[in-house]
């Protein structure tokens, strides 16, 4: 070994040390300029800006809510575990609102109490819109524990975190399934709640937790009981894209579109012997754009020490047969329909009396033409044959 060779070798540890130092410095700088400067917007209250946590914001209704809130200049944090939602929907929102401090996405499971607490500790939320849930009646009868955990227990976790971190406003996604199958139609907010499947029961229990808690707090609370949600963003940016494996659980609009696209051979209408005018179930179909408008109005009108409970529906029932006819017209496809026996957990007729929300929140459904709502949704479906991965 000559002297030169020895010197080169003796400098090697120093060079390695220097390289490691530079890498560490870059990493620290990156964290300070990139990561931390973005999260600063979300971790501090800013006068004039309302920061809303949208749980389940990668899902169908939550993503539409996030879009509307962002359009209306709210600051939005989406928390979702992507178990049922789509990262593609979040990406659309991020592309539309790329400015710092507008939108952040946090991947987390609301069942993980530590993670939830950390999210609330690190972010200055003014309000929570709690959409995240598993939400299929049929699935809930097959997997009740999953529903009680995901809906009831996770809502308890959210409310506890809100209390611990002084978040003042909760808008809760509930459902007409909490009413069960009332004798008298239309359903008002005073109709007794007697749910007949685990989905409805889990939501009713979550409501009860919120209502009991409301007696001990000055939190502003709005509970919105949605009827059957359809439609999508009229500008075609977002749509409904459930996991293919959930097709069988199917909501009716998804099944109609799948049949129209030939993904499934036809439609299976379950139950033709209900006590309704044409024997098929009657539902109140509410357009997602109207539904989100109700949330924004509820948020604006939410007051401390006050709980508002509202049905969100059109007040008009349509039968499954009528729905299928509207879907055929909207898609232009003559969908094959098979009529089968009843599905467990379904109820015959459900439609709302929306007069309370009309009166108190000055909200009224605007998209009341089934064919029009379905035509808008169909445009998105046609352009996104593989959902958000198209
Ligand atoms: N779609 C309807 O017709 C309807 C009717 C009445 C009420 N609702 C309620 O509206 C809300 C939204 O429903 P949707 O139709 O948009 O459903 P969706 O499945 O499209 O969205 C739910 C979102 O919540 C997320 N999520 C579920 N569990 C989670 C968890 N543990 N942690 C974090 N994220 C989680 C999912 O990944 C998904 O993105 C639900 O609370 C549902 O019960 C829906």
UniProtKB/TrEMBL annotation:
<keyword id="KW-0413">Isomerase</keyword>
<dbReference type="InterPro" id="IPR005886">
    <property type="entry name" value="UDP_G4E"/>
</dbReference>
<keyword id="KW-0520">NAD</keyword>
<protein>
    <recommendedName>
        <fullName>UDP-glucose 4-epimerase</fullName>
        <ecNumber>5.1.3.-</ecNumber>
    </recommendedName>
</protein>
<dbReference type="Pfam" id="PF16363">
    <property type="entry name" value="GDP_Man_Dehyd"/>
</dbReference>
<comment type="pathway">
    <text>Carbohydrate metabolism; galactose metabolism.</text>
</comment>
<dbReference type="GO" id="GO:0006012">
    <property type="term" value="P:galactose metabolic process"/>
</dbReference>
<dbReference type="GO" id="GO:0003978">
    <property type="term" value="F:UDP-glucose 4-epimerase activity"/>
</dbReference>
<comment type="similarity">
    <text>Belongs to the NAD(P)-dependent epimerase/dehydratase family.</text>
</comment>
<dbReference type="InterPro" id="IPR036291">
    <property type="entry name" value="NAD(P)-bd_dom_sf"/>
</dbReference>
<feature type="domain" description="NAD(P)-binding">
    <location>
        <begin position="53"/>
        <end position="368"/>
    </location>
</feature>
<keyword id="KW-0119">Carbohydrate metabolism</keyword>
<dbReference type="InterPro" id="IPR016040">
    <property type="entry name" value="NAD(P)-bd_dom"/>
</dbReference>
